[in-house]
Amino acid sequence: MRADTCTEQHKSLSSAPHSGQAAGGCYSARRWKRALFFYSSPGFLDETMAIYLATGLAPGQAQPEDDEVISKRLFPLSAAVKMVKSGRIEDGKTIAGVLWLQAAHVPSRRK
């Protein structure tokens, strides 16, 4: 999943998926699907965020910004959900993305 921030509404929504980079640039993706779009601090800022689901992943080369350090750690979805529920993950966009992914991949119990 990838989250992009945009202070000018929808600016990054059209360009972010076309960069082909997912998970901090450690992978490239063939397909992108916008999963979520939301205001990061409604009533305080106009900043919006979009979270994309990247599929068709292939290993890539990270290209961090000068002040950015990327360390890749992979977790099963079930572990990430437990980390959200225990408070180990505190970042709002990560919480939103993990819970969206869990909901998207849990079969409906309705009959």
Structural class: alpha+beta
Query: Spatial order of the strands in the main sheet?
Result: 1-4-3-2
Low-confidence stretches: 4-16
Portion of residues in beta strands equals 25-35%
Summed up, the domain count is: 2
Amino-to-carboxy terminus distance: 30 Å
Order of helices and strands: EHEEEHH
Helix content: 25-40%
Shape: globular
Summarize this structure as a short list of keywords or feature phrases.
single chain; 111 residues; alpha+beta; 4-stranded antiparallel sheet; 4 strands
Q: What can you tell me about this protein's structure?
A:
By secondary structure, the chain is of the alpha+beta class. It has two domains: 1-69, no CATH class; 75-111, no CATH class. It is 26% helix and 29% strand. The protein has a four-stranded antiparallel β-sheet with strand order 1-4-3-2. The N and C termini lie far apart (30 Å).
List the helices and strands and how they pair.
Layout: E1 2-6, H1 11-15, E2 21-22, E3 27-39, E4 48-59, H2 77-86, H3 92-105
Q: What is this entry, summarized?
A:
With 111 residues, the protein is of the alpha+beta class.
